[in-house]
Each structure stands twice: as C-alpha cells, then as structure tokens.
Design goal:
Rossmann fold, 49% helix, two-stranded parallel sheet, binds NADP nicotinamide-adenine-dinucleotide phosphate
C-alpha cells in the first residue's frame, strides 16, 4: 500500500514549505486546502520537481459536514497516511468584541475542531497499521494569553497542550506526536502578506527544514529559532499579569497594517 504524508493548509505559507520539504525527501503527498485552484498547481509542480505522487483534496475545514465527508473518504479508502501534518490555520487580529462572530467560529473550527477530528480519525487508522506520525502546528502565541488576538492564541494553546497529551497517550501505539510552535514566519509564497514579520524572523522554508529534521528525531515540541525558545520560556518565569501585558504589546507590534 502506498504511503502518504497528508498536509492541511498546503497551498501557501508554512504548509506549502512543509509539503516541499517532504517531497524533497521523496514523500508522496496528499495536499489539503479550501481552494482547488491553489492546490492543483502546487501538486503539479511538486510532482515534476521531485518525482513523487502528489494528490490533492479541496475541503473547507471550517465546515464540520465537509470534514465528516472527508474523514469517511479517508476511512473507506485504501490510502495509507503515515504522516499527518495539521497546518491549516486562521488568524484574527484586534479586539475580540470587534470581530465578526462568523470569522471567530471559522477560526475555532479550523484551528481546533478540524485538527482534533483529523487526529482522531487518522490516529485510529494509524493505530490499525501499527504506527505513524502526527505533527500539529501551534504557535509561539500559544505559550501565553494573547490580548489583541485572544481566540487565535487560545486555540494555539489548545493545540500545544492537546498534542503533548496525545503524545503521552499514544506512546505505546507506535504513533509519534509532535507540535510545531513557530514565531512570526516570513513567507515568500503566502498569497497575502498578512504578518509584519521582521527581517530577523525565519522564513517558511527555514522553519520547514528545521521541522522535518526535528521530526526525524521525534522531538515533542518543535520551536525553531533561539529567540523564540527564549520567548517561550518567559511566561514560566514572569508573573502572569506581566506576561499578559507583554503578550499584548508583542501582538500589537506584529499586527498587519491598518488594524488598530
Ligand atoms: N505565518 C506565521 O507567522 C505563523 C506563525 C506561527 C504559527 N503559524 C501557524 O502556521 C500555520 C500556517 O500559517 P501560514 O501563515 O503559513 O498560513 P497561510 O499562508 O495563511 O495559509 C493558510 C493555509 O490554510 C488553508 N486554509 C485556510 N482556511 C482553510 C479552511 N477553512 N479549510 C482548509 N484549508 C484552509 C489555506 O488555503 P485556502 O485559503 O485555499 O483554504 C492555506 O493553504 C497556521 O496554523 C498558523 O497559525 C503561522
């Protein structure tokens, strides 16, 4: 049975860089994102450049019914996924009360519900096959409360804790679980340059390379960048009131143009 690495959010940014890094290593891929038109050229390019099999599946992960349909397809199909990369993620910036509820709900569905659902479904398929590997993409923002991006930071805190817990639970099943916590990432291949990532930030390609190497070593928490590793430690050393203040300041610094 052919084995695949399945990557959600694979049409741009970090997901695309991870897809490329895995294809470079000869991995067959299943790419997932909302827009088919964005996935198709990526699949063609990666197939041509690296000679691997690249399938793609358009699925809106904010819609539970579509996710259910997709899960059923995976459960009934004969494609073996031995690496699941949950990278699709949405962000919201600005005060919570000023956000449209529909956007907040989509963010929670994609960042949290769909990720958990795919871990459950594909984790069970991996268990039947005696093992596999799961990489969930959280964020440095998940280490602290995030005034100015409250729901985003909270979903990433969930991803971090959930992934670490799952790792412990699944230790004896042969399923390895890791969680990636990048700081701001510079991306040459993101359709909309949303983040004001500084020039000192790592590029998506650098983060992807660091990540595939860390996966080889079965690292539990993958934190690329020395500065980010220090920042991740800070909330454990500082009083919570100061952590909240500093996190709010950092989120204001990195917010995109035009958002107060
Ligand atoms: N960029 C950073 O600075 C940074 C820092 C820390 C953590 N992260 C995390 O890294 C991950 C990737 O971030 P990024 O900035 O590289 O992403 P991005 O460039 O904004 O790309 C997001 C990807 O997710 C897909 N996606 C969005 N909504 C979706 C939906 N409803 N259903 C299915 N797919 C959907 C997008 O494709 P479609 O639009 O076609 O669906 C795209 O492929 C996220 O989880 C993010 O939280 C990013």
């Amino acid at each position: 049975m052919t084995r695949y690495a399945m990557i959600t959010g694979a049409s741009s940014g970090l997901g695309l860089a991870l897809a490329e890094a895995l294809a470079r290593r000869g991995r067959n891929l299943i790419l997932v994102a909302r827009q088919r038109e964005a996935l198709e050229p990526v699949a063609i390019e990666l197939t041509q450049r690296f000679g691997v099999e690249v399938l793609f599946r358009a699925c809106d992960l904010s819609e539970p019914l579509r996710v259910s349909g997709f899960v059923l397809e995976l459960e009934e199909g004969d494609r073996r996924i031995d690496l699941l990369v949950n990278c699709a993620g949405l962000r919201s910036y600005g005060p919570f009360l000023a956000q449209e509820w529909a956007d907040e709900q989509d963010l929670i569905e994609v960042n949290l519900v769909a990720l958990t659902r795919l871990c459950h479904a594909i984790g069970n398929l991996m268990a039947v096959h005696g093992g596999g590997q799961i990489l969930n993409v959280a964020s440095l923002a998940g280490y602290a409360p995030g005034p100015g991006m409250a729901t985003y930071a909270a979903t990433k805190a969930y991803v971090l804790h959930f992934s670490e817990a799952l790792r412990e639970e699944l230790k004896r099943t042969g399923i390895k679980v890791s969680v990636l916590c990048p700081g701001p990432v510079r991306s040459s291949k993101r359709r909309i340059p949303r983040l004001e990532a500084s020039k000192r930030s790592l590029t998506a390609e650098e983060v992807a390379l660091y990540t595939v190497r860390a996966l080889d070593k079965n690292r539990a928490v993958i934190l690329p960048g020395r500065r980010n590793r220090w920042l991740a430690r800070a909330p454990r050393l500082l009083p919570r009131w100061l952590t909240r203040k500093l996190a709010g300041l950092i989120h204001r610094t990195y917010r995109p143009h035009g958002i107060q």
